[in-house]
Structures are given as C-alpha cells and as structure tokens.
Write a structure and sequence with these properties.
Blueprint lengths: L2 E6 L2 H11 L2 E4 L5 E4 L3 E5 L4 H14 L5 E11 L9 E9 L5 E2 L11 E6 L14 E3 L2 H8 L8 E9 L8 H10 L1 H12 L11 H13 L4 H17 L18 H16 L1
Parallel strand pairs: 1-4, 1-5, 5-10, 6-8, 8-9
Antiparallel strand pairs: 2-3, 3-4, 5-9, 6-7, 6-10
Helix pairs in contact: 1-4, 2-3, 7-8
C-alpha cells in the first residue's frame, strides 16, 4: 500500500489515529516531531494558517513525502441548513477568505461521502456564518497551499467532521476527540481505499530528465499548477514514447518577457508532448 500521512490541526483530532494505529513519536530536526507507523504517519500543525505554513514547510524540508497520500482530517463548522453535527464530509473546494484564492482537489476516486466546499478563515466564526457557504475552518486552505508545492493535487484529500453550526467557541478537547473517534471506521475505510488506489505512481523521470523539467519550470516561470501539468505531460510522453525529451532543450534559451510569450511556449510544449 502507498504511504499515507494524516494532517491534523489539533492533538485531540490526532489522538484517535495515534491510538488506533499504535503510532510512535519520532523526532525530526528543529524540535519537530511526527507519529509513525509502517505505512501511515500523523502530523499536527497547530491552529491557524501561520502555524500550518511554518510547520508544514519544516516537515517537507525534513521528510521526503513525495510518494505519500496526504489526508487532512479535522473538525469544521458547518452551515446549519447544509450540514449535520457529527457527520463526515468530503471537501470539494477550498477557499482562503483573506486572499480569496480558491483550490479544487483533484478527486479521481469515487468516495462515498457527501461533499461540501470549505472556507478557511483567520478568526473563528460564531455568528452562524451568514456570509459563508458549506464548511469553515482555520487551516484547510493553508494546508492545501503549503502541500501542493511538494505533492500533486490528486494526492491531497480533505475530510471534515462538523462540530458546530458556526455558533460557538469550541474549547473542549474531549468533545473534539469523540467527534473524530465516532467517524474513525468510515475515515479508515476511505484511507485504505486511497492507499490501495495506485494514486502514487512509480517515478518515470530519471535524474537527467528531472533536471531538464526543473530548468524549464524556472526558465518559463511556471506556476505550481503548471509545473505539475508539465511533469505529468513529460511522464506521459516517456511512458508512451521514449525517455528522450531533448527536443525541449531549445525552450531553455527562450527569454520570457510577457504573459503572451509564456503562454505561447507552454502551448507549444504541450502540443509536442501530446503528439
């Protein structure tokens, strides 16, 4: 099975998984620690986007997770008309309220759960969430943003248990732990499905082609999403044709000064790799 890492904001969210899988605490560098098992790990970020960014950045710097499936499991507030307290939901859209940035998980598998969008906010919502839709938390979008720089989108998944209807300050760890524990059987069922799915593919790029792809990313100033698209196209070309992608080398000499120039180069590369 593929390796899976569970990301939680709170220790009370993590404890049911640590206990169930018998995970052991392992120290990394800079006082960073993770709970490890044979093919599953659990890591806690702390509350809020700043903690997520700091701790996940350190985690990816200290541990190779490129061949892992990441699942964020945690509590979320839910719109009263759209959600049920104690119920587990699959997130199909993430929005950072502050930056207005939006991300969509690449949901390649059929998962038997109701779906809702998630908005990540800077402060807890206690007014019923009149201006919000679906679910709300303080970490999800930040976890996606930090992780997608290191993992393909299809290896990122978000599961949320509704703890309240955006109408209270939640400060009861035992209540949070019970919410997660009550959904443990269904959550583990989904995790096992992900681990057995083959979502993590064997690497097709040798070191030379990997370096060429990285140089193209830099030369063309590709976004993170465009970098993943290029990598997948290159891997697809190699799988169907050959590992000779030297025909892309001329693009290393192109000076990109305009958006139009970048888009033209990207289009030509996509066409060459898709032929």
């Amino acid at each position: 099975m593929d390796h899976l890492i569970i990301i939680n904001a709170l220790r009370s969210e993590a404890r049911p998984f640590i206990d169930h899988f018998g995970l052991q605490k392992q120290m990394l560098e800079n006082e960073l620690f993770i709970y490890e098992g044979t093919d599953i790990s659990c890591f806690t970020t702390g509350v809020g986007k700043a903690n997520v960014k700091k701790r996940l950045t350190s985690l990816f710097e200290n541990k190779d997770l490129s061949r892992s499936i990441l699942v964020n499991v945690g509590i979320a507030g839910g719109k009263k008309e759209q959600s049920e307290i104690g119920k587990l939901y699959l997130v199909n859209k993430l929005t950072d309220e502050e930056s207005a940035r939006i991300w969509f998980p690449d949901m390649l598998l059929q998962i038997d759960l109701p779906e809702l969008p998630l908005t990540t906010v800077a402060k807890g919502v206690t007014d019923g969430g009149n201006h919000l839709y679906g679910l709300v938390d303080m970490e999800g979008a930040a976890i996606f943003e930090a992780s997608v720089q290191h993992l393909p989108v299809h290896q990122l998944h978000f599961l949320k248990v509704v703890s309240d209807h955006m109408d209270m300050v939640l400060d009861n760890p035992d209540y949070v732990e019970k919410l997660i524990a009550d959904q443990l059987p269904k959550t583990i069922e989904i995790m096992e499905l992900l681990q057995k799915s083959g979502l993590v593919k064997q690497p097709l790029l040798d070191e030379e082609n990997k370096k060429l792809t990285e140089r193209l990313n830099k030369q063309l100033k590709l976004t993170v999403t465009q970098q993943h698209q290029l990598k997948e196209l290159v891997e697809g070309y190699i799988a169907l044709n050959s590992d000779d992608i030297s025909f892309l080398c001329p693009y290393l000499e192109i000076e990109i000064n305009t958006t139009a120039g970048r888009q033209k180069a990207i289009k030509e590369i996509h066409e060459a790799l898709s032929s």
